[in-house]
Amino acid sequence: MSSRHRRTGLAAAMGVFAALLPAGAVLADRITVFAAASLTNAMAEIEAGFEATTGHEVAVSLAGSSALARQIQQGAPADIFISANPGWMDALESDGLLETGTRVDLLRNSLVLIAHGPEAAPVEIGAGLDLAGLLGERRLAMALVEAVPAGIYGKAALESLGLWESVAPRVAQADNVRAALALVATGEAPYGIVYATDAVAEEDVTVIGTFPAASHPPIVYPAADLANRDVAAEAAFLDYLRGPEARAAFERQGFIVVAD
């Protein structure tokens, strides 16, 4: 048989084989999702559910929104970005790095003061709170206050209540909100400021107060498709994020789902 006939026969056999496979197996894509660290638990559920439902593969990279946004600006091969604040998504949109029309506000969250251990006494968070006295010589764990959304919101709340200057020298800054949570969970810092959803994920901390919503900008999580390539799984994943399975996963972690 000539090499030409062999190649033709092989192509025909591969075509028959592909036709016999489930459509999902032929069309499956692999996408990379960059997501804020505060989404860790919910994204584990969503990743597994999406893969089982669609046949697509997902790789989730979790870190502070600022670090992820900068990686995207530097050309990191991500397909979807879920930020813990609109500012970093705005920056990527200004750079032309979002697929037009795909950005959606997905979630809301709240900000809490946590303490190490299960028996910490509650406090009333307001201008009259002596947070500096509560800390003494100890540390207040926060995510990076000039870069990471949880830290930015936390600093804004403390400034709004007139508490920032008195506690700023005692703040222990961590790379992301989950790292700040870990400092309190392990007892390295007795108190910390994190999202309410982070506190749900850690049994070794206690929420001792919730910051008034008016003390900081609304905590909004936007999601968008990035404009570096176009595969079917990207749109499918954004649809899944707005569907009932993802909604249930987010709500189990304490998020408020705002996307339809």
TrEMBL record:
GO terms for cellular component: outer membrane-bounded periplasmic space. GO terms for molecular function: metal ion binding; molybdate ion binding; tungstate binding. The keyword Signal applies. Molybdate binds at residues 38, 65, 150, 177, 195. Keywords: Metal-binding, Molybdenum, Signal. GO terms for biological process: molybdate ion transport. Coiled coil: none annotated. The complex is composed of two ATP-binding proteins (ModC), two transmembrane proteins (ModB) and a solute-binding protein (ModA). Belongs to the bacterial solute-binding protein ModA family. This is Molybdate ABC transporter substrate-binding protein.
